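Page header: ASSEMBLY MODEL / two components / 777 residues total.
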Amino acid sequence: MPAFVPYLLHTLFPPTVLRPTEIGADVLIVATGVIIVTVLTRQKKWGWLWREWLTTVDHKRIAVMYLIAAIAMLFRGGVDALMMRTNLALPSVHFISAEEYNEVFTTHGTIMIFFMAMPLIFALFNAVIPLMIGARDVAFPRLNAVSFWLFAFGALLFNISFVVGGSPNAGWTAYPPLTELAFNPGPGENYYFLALFISGIGTTITGINFLVTILRMRAPGMTLMRMPLFAWTTLCTSALILFAFPPLTVALGTSLLDRLFHASFYTLGHGGMPMMYVNLFWLFGHPEVYIVVLPAFGIFSEVVPTFSRKPLFGYTAMVVSVVAIMVLSYGTWVHHFFTMGAGPSVNVFFGLSTMLIAIPTGVKIFNWIFTMWGGRIRLTVPMLYQLAFIPTFVVGGATGVLLATVPVDYQLHNTYFLVAHFHNTLIGGTVFGLLSGLYYWWPKMFGYKLDERQGKWAFWLFFLGFWVTFGPQYLLGLEGMTRRLWTYPLGLGWHALNLISTIGAYGMGAGFVVLVYNVVWSMQHGERDLTGDPWDGRTLEWSLPSPAPEYNFARIPVVTERDAWWAMKARGETTAVRVRPDEISALELPRNSAMPFFLGLGFFVLGFGLTFRWWWIAGLGLAGILGAMLWAGFDYEDRKHVHAEEIRRIEAALGRLEA
Amino acid sequence: MSVHRAPDAEEHLPYLEAHFESETRFPWIKVVGYAGSLVLTLVAFWAVSAHWMSPTALLAFILGLAVAQAALQLGVFMHLRESRGPSWQIAGLGLGLFIAVGLVGMSIWIMLFKSGVS
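Prediction written out in full:
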């Protein structure tokens, strides 16, 4: 046996990845892989997979790929959460070791934010925004695919850390000195920094893409103040991404330089400043909170009018408050580290700016309620999530204002009170919002509805499970239980509340299982959406068939007011979306490309090489990246022509051709 | 709503047209800008790693290099000077500058640690 084999085995599979949970995961991964490969091979689907999906630049298909990835990541992050809750169910349970607990809470937070919430948001952006504003695709379709593959390979790099080399274990915030090479020598933190670096590039590109799409590609007549509110929140979210991700990139990059090349940006002993990392991280981290919650606000602003049969109350106030939230969220980041001790004037400034954000948010909450007021409300699953969102998010917001009070924060920071607070906003806001949007736009994405009865089961399990999980955690925080605690002894009075919390977590887990069952069942038996407008919707995406054809609009609609589709229905002009055969002209559509996939692969190889400091592998990845970029630069055949005849055929099959 | 009118994305607006492929001359300015950016970065790196000056002077020096590089990139790559219509890009750049200066300024304020209790 050559000498390098034991070294290689030990580096790739150290004892920390040979524990029972990791072995179990190995078995699952191999089994799933074998099943997927077998099915694809036996059904001869490899070519289909490559041509129709992996190389696609169609925003609707990219949305589906984001969605699949996000649900897989929700599963992984959820299993992490259940492992933590199992370990905390009773005093002195040693279900997993302290070391593994550190890894599990780190991956839970990182995955849920970067690899679950973000892709789910991008899934809805991609699925909805071009249809909603009357565009045929996003502004830069190929870059859109680049974004997806950078995200996907970043997520892959992060996830393999679990079974190859060892997981990161310094929390989702990855503060130094916990991440410094001297104290944390394994590859885990390298995985964290590189995976976030790579997917962060993709996220930034997505931000630019949707900014340009919304500013430049709206249908004629759709002025900014006639846009659906989801388009407004997407615009603001994209602007937040554009300015919030660079500080993160700097924080990740300098940490990497510290770890890989022994720089000392954050090493106190060599004149570095670890607090600067904290500052940079939250310069990104606070806008990130609004990056994940603003889309939910936008979704609710679409769901509530549709299911109340009323236009949105106070549209202008809604737009102003979204923009106000966007601007204010840049000026609040210190509230994540009040206890650093930057001084009373700094803390007071950022405490007040944090409280200010509650004002525009409150305006929005009231506007949703006023929209429902006097409306004809249908209690569908999307609407149930909205109704659950209001009290849940209000509690999250109110406890946020409590925590923004600096003396209170000194008492409560890093306790379970904080944990309960941010889950109230992230689950009550982001996750409820995204699930609402998913149920709402599912028929548009896939052409069938998700079963309502099963959806309500999933909703109630998830909603009640949420409160049973996080209600007790406020009390635990007040009793002094700190976050990231591995286990606790009997006699502190924490066990009853912890047990209740764990039961709630399993309730949420059951909700997830029902949700997946709901999707799988509805694929076969769900009500097919033949009209394209199953909810009696108000905005342009409902004027299209479900799912929309590749080119979205055979003819771009002309908009004269808000809720354009509703207005057309009210005037009995729904035939306006049909086209006369002679009106159809040939179209230019973006051509599929394998470049984004290989670019992502190059970044993955680079990241893997850097993680283990195998420079030649990193060099190989870098060469791949440069190759893919040259390919992109000299590939002028990026469009394809769709003949008028083909469009006529598709539109006729959809029954949308005028005689 | 005019129903059967179809003035849509196919409408030709010259200033929206992509114009890269019509460029016939070799983009020397971009190459020079790229090389200049690399040189400015390498000089900063060398100055720090060689401890060329006292720490304070060094900080001022690399800050100057950073500003020079930002200006270079804005001019060469960020379309500061090009315009085929109203100069919309100036407003965006202004917003970017406002946010960047705000974030940097506040960060300096925070990291001064003028605190009696820390």
